[in-house]
């Protein structure tokens, strides 16, 4: 018995070493395991932003006065806008049509006069509604800028602005409202899906394609050992991807990690097991790299991107889509990661989601184990 | 011991789904394989060889019957069977991104070879395979022959009692093939190993102690190869008729009463007769010169197949396509001078010269990687040469590649058919692709359907056709536009000998009408059908002559009648020696 167990350890060691040698030597593994994560981190860390930042906007003051100059200067000072002064409305409308500006703020010629009347001065705001998200942001920011400019004016005149309700706003968890702070941690889920599901499905399919699986099967190695060899190697690789993402998030992108790193580690491992389970399940269905890659992208990578709450808030999706997200493993993990990074160890969020990860991992690993037999059919 | 059976199959059947139909891969096969000898499982592609191997290794479950390996049930005790046997699958089961040594280490780990025993075993295997200098090279960078030997070494890290080799010699050069057989011989003699080896090359049968002939999932015959040849004693002849080209003589004799097989074989026509002695139809042929020759294994196979199939596939008339373009004979249709092609810093083709005359059948013979395919692609205008002159049908391929392509037909090894189109749809597509329209197209379609007897299969998907019919269809498509030159890339590898004969009869018919034929092959048998041969290795032509003259190069006192393979090996070794000197 001990001899058998010793042989098993030797076989497993051999299989795991083989996986690592293959990862290191195969350009496509390196691309998926190392280059893609770095590319995604840089893209989401620096490139993609859901904030309105230096939005080009046209300012039209039909009769420039000290008031209009003062208001426009306040817009210029905000980093939300990159204002461009234009003399006439037709010029501004043309710029909007060409997409050179995202909105127009128009101060009529009677702006200064109206301002001192009790019912106030109207300003016209025209927004390019093609990108609804940016349009809403521009509207909101203009309103905010307008409000604070009025309050400033009133204070200068020694009056207080007569509003029955005053709003005191506080922003929790992500006080600077940087979208990077929740996008970058969410990338851990995407990167581990890439390594756990896509890469694993591809390398298993490659073993079928190249006929090496057939040779492995006719050795004393059991199917469990073959699967375990893959699981161990890609688990280590996925953990590396997690550490890389967390490290870069905290040190390069300065995202706060408010929760415990060890809780993050444990939850990541659970998610990684589920992702590996999905990858191996796919490889029992598809024995060509082409098909395996397609299934993995459609069934794991895209849902992790679009339906996990990584970018798009699940709460604002239609009910049917919300229901579908419950079978997306990444959604449970994204909830955990965003909470751990920005809010801290909130157990009422972490525990139910972690439990869901355990169930998902168990389901996929069981399917893999049941479906893989040492047979070619 | 030697008469003990190491593997026994009883009523073994297995079928697969293919396009909604059940295709029987093995049909009630019963056989026994003796311990301590080399048994050859011989048959064309699709005969069921690989299925049998996989059943023996416990990788498939039979639909009916049992298979017992080393006294164990291969289906239900597959783990125990797998622990006791060595199995090399068709592509050798190597990890191409691991080095030679890492592959060996992996299989030693998997086979549970104790670390203390390894260095001695590795040394032994490296010595046996000659791989010692390449321990740190990636397996993917090895030549086909070296991969094959490494695959074998990995299978042998822990000496198995039974070794299963699935087509180990496919795509491997003749030198490596000969070395593999030497290694197998040593294993059987010194380690008492039993070997079951499958192959589609009939000339390998004679190297086995015992042979199982498999055809369409059934056992045709089993026994020592000499016994099969012995049945043919007195029935095999070499025939010539002075003044008549062998190709015309062969056409005259094939299909005559009492003739089982007639084949152009270099300088003569090889004839197999239905009974000992020459039939009337042959001996009465004007000016005929006959000489009795020793029977070969293939003769016995052909005889069995013919008797099994009756005369149904025998007497097809090979009129050949009528009215092909032709002009004055004996002018060079293909001229190649100083042809070179480089990929990176590797010269795939390194200075090649030859000329092919109209109506000639010209063969390019070489192992994988010798530069055949690269030469071929340049001739078809698919790949620009790095240096050299290339004229096809009088046109310079550098300037008029598409005009030249309209005058050539091309049939690739993979047949280039649309598997999900029916036979008729494939024909129609290729006719349109070659710009045929109206009545001309209908005429050619009718010609293709009748000439290649594709009528009964017109509505079947081409992916589901038997191999021999796929080959017919591919050829019909390639001939659709009446090309004056046809290029054939390994046209008959893997098809059964009857289909191969039929195919070459068609090719001969085309050549008789002035169509020029260029064939690449690594099959020695196929090379014998050519008028002239160029033997290629490492991007160069080692010899260019008629098959008989090439064979004569290897004639020695010890080997008065060398085969083409002997000559090939001799040439490759001489050039390697010259390179080393």
The CATH superfamily of the largest domain in chain B bears the name P-loop containing nucleotide triphosphate hydrolases
What is the gyration radius of chain B calculated from CA atoms? 25 Å
Largest sheet of chain B: 6 strands, mixed
Tell me the strand percentage band of chain A: 5-15%
Number of strands of chain B: 24
Shape assignment of chain A:
elongated
Overall mean pLDDT score of chain A? 86
Question: Largest interface, counted with CB-CB under 8 A?
Answer: A-B, 28 and 34 residues
Could you tell me how far the N terminus lies from the C terminus of chain A, measured between alpha carbons in angstroms? 31 Å
The strand line-up of the biggest sheet of chain A is: 2-1-3-4
* Uncertain stretches of 5 or more adjacent residues of chain B: 312-329
Description:
The complex is a heterodimer of chains A (about 375) and B (about 575). By secondary structure, chain A is mostly helical. Chain A folds into two domains: about 1-50 and about 180-370; about 55-155, abc type-2 transporter like domain (abc type-2 transporter like fold). The longest helix of chain A is centred in the middle third of the chain and has 30 residues, at about 180-210. In chain A, helix 2 runs antiparallel to helix 7 (about 180-210), helix 7 (about 180-210) runs antiparallel to helix 11 and helix 10 (about 260-285) packs antiparallel against helix 13. Chain A has a four-stranded mixed β-sheet, with helices on both faces. The mean pLDDT of chain A is about 85. Chain A has 14 helices and four strands. The model of chain B is unreliable at about 310-330 (pLDDT under 50). Chain B folds into three domains: about 5-225, Rossmann fold (3-Layer(aba) Sandwich), CATH 3.40.50.300; about 230-310, Alpha-Beta Plaits; about 360-370 and about 410-580, P-loop containing nucleotide triphosphate hydrolases (Rossmann fold, 3-Layer(aba) Sandwich), CATH 3.40.50. Chain B has about 575 residues and is α/β, with parallel strands linked by helices. The interface between A and B is medium-sized, with 28 and 34 residues.
């Amino acid at each position: 018995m001990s001899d058998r167990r010793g042989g098993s350890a030797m076989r497993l060691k051999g299989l795991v070493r083989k996986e690592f040698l293959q990862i290191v030597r195969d350009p496509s593994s390196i691309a998926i395991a190392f280059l893609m994560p770095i590319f995604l981190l840089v893209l989401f860390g620096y490139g993609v932003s859901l904030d309105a930042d230096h939005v080009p906007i046209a300012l039209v003051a039909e009769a420039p006065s000290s008031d209009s100059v003062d208001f426009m200067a306040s817009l210029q000072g905000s980093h939300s806008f990159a204002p461009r002064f234009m003399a006439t409305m037709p010029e501004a409308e043309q710029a909007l049509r060409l997409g050179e500006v995202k909105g127009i703020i128009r101060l009529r010629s009677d702006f200064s006069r109206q301002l001192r009347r009790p019912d106030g001065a109207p300003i016209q705001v025209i927004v390019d509604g093609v990108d609804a998200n940016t349009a809403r942001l521009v509207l909101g920011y203009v309103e905010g800028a307008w409000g604070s400019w009025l309050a400033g004016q009133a204070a200068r005149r020694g009056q207080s602005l007569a509003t029955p309700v005053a709003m005191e706003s506080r922003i929790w968890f992500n006080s600077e409202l940087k979208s990077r702070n929740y996008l970058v941690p969410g990338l851990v889920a995407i990167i581990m899906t890439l390594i756990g599901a896509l890469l694993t499905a591809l390398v298993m399919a490659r073993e079928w394609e190249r006929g090496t699986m057939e040779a492995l099967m006719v050795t004393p190695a059991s199917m469990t050992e073959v699967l375990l060899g893959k699981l161990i190697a890609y688990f280590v690789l996925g953990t590396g991807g997690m550490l890389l993402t967390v490290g870069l998030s905290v040190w390069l992108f300065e995202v706060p990690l408010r929760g415990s790193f060890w809780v993050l580690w444990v939850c990541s491992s659970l998610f990684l097991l589920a992702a590996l389970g999905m990858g191996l399940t796919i490889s029992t269905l598809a024995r060509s790299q082409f098909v395996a890659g397609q299934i993995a992208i459609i069934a794991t990578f895209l849902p992790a991107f679009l339906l996990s709450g990584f970018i798009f808030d699940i709460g604002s999706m239609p009910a049917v889509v919300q229901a579908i997200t419950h079978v997306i493993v990444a959604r449970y993990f994204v909830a955990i990661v965003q909470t751990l990074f920005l809010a801290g160890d909130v157990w009422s969020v972490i525990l139910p989601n972690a439990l869901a990860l355990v169930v998902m991992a168990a389901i996929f690993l069981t399917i893999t184990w049941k479906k893989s037999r040492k047979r070619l059919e | 011991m030697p008469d003990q059976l190491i593997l026994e199959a009883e009523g073994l059947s297995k079928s697969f789904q293919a396009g909604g139909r059940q295709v029987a891969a093995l049909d009630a096969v019963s056989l026994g394989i003796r311990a301590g000898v080399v048994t050859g499982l011989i048959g064309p592609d699709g005969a069921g060889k690989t299925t049998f191997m996989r059943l023996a290794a416990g990788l498939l479950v039979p639909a009916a019957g049992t298979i017992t390996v080393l006294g164990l049930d291969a289906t239900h005790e597959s783990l125990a069977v797998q622990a006791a046997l060595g199995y090399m699958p068709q592509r050798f089961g190597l990890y191409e991104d691991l080095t030679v040594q890492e592959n060996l280490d992996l299989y030693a780990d998997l086979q549970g070879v104790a670390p203390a025993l390894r260095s001695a075993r590795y040394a032994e295997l490296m010595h046996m395979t000659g791989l010692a200098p390449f321990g740190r090279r990636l397996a993917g960078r090895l030549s086909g022959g070296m991969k094959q030997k490494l695959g074998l070494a990995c299978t042998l890290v822990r000496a198995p009692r039974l070794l299963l080799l699935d087509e180990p010699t496919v795509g491997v050069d003749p030198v490596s093939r000969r070395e593999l057989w030497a290694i197998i011989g040593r294993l059987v003699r010194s380690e008492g190993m039993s070997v079951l080896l499958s192959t589609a090359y009939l000339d390998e049968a004679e190297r086995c102690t015992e042979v199982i002939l498999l055809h369409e999932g059934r056992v045709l015959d089993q026994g020592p190869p000499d016994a099969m040849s012995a049945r043919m004693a007195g029935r095999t002849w070499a025939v010539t008729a002075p003044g008549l080209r062998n190709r015309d003589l062969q056409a005259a004799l094939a299909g005559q009463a009492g003739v089982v097989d007639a084949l152009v074989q270099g300088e003569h026509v090889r004839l197999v007769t239905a009974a000992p002695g020459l039939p009337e139809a042959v001996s009465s042929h004007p000016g005929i010169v006959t000489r009795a020759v020793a029977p070969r294994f293939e003769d016995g196979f052909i005889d069995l197949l013919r008797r099994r199939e009756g005369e149904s596939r025998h007497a097809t008339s090979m009129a050949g396509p009528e009215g092909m373009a032709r002009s004055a004979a004996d002018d060079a249709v293909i001229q190649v001078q100083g042809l070179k092609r480089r990929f990176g810093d590797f010269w795939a083709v390194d200075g090649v010269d030859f000329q092919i005359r109209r109506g000639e059948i010209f063969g390019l013979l070489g192992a994988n990687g010798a530069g055949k395919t690269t030469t071929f692609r340049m001739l078809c205008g698919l790949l620009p040469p790095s240096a050299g002159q290339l004229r096809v049908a009088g046109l310079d391929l550098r300037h008029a590649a598409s005009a030249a392509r309209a005058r050539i037909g091309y049939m690739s090894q993979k047949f280039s058919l649309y598997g999900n189109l029916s036979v008729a749809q494939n024909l129609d597509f290729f006719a349109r692709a070659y710009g045929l329209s109206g009545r001309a197209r209908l005429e050619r379609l009718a010609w293709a359907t009748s000439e290649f007897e594709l009528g009964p299969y017109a509505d079947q998907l081409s992916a589901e056709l038997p191999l021999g019919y796929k080959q017919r269809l591919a050829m019909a498509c390639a001939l659709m536009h009446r090309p004056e030159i046809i290029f054939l890339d390994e046209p008959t590898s893997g098809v059964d000998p009857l289909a191969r004969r039929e195919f070459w009869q068609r090719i001969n018919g085309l050549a008789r009408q002035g169509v020029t034929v260029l064939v690449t092959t690594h099959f020695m048998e196929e090379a014998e059908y050519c008028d002239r041969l160029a033997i290629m290795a490492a991007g160069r032509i080692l010899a260019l002559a008629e098959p008989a003259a090439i064979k004569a190069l290897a004639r020695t006192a010890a080997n008065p009648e060398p085969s083409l393979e002997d000559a090939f090996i001799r040439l490759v070794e001489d050039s390697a020696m010259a390179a080393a000197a």
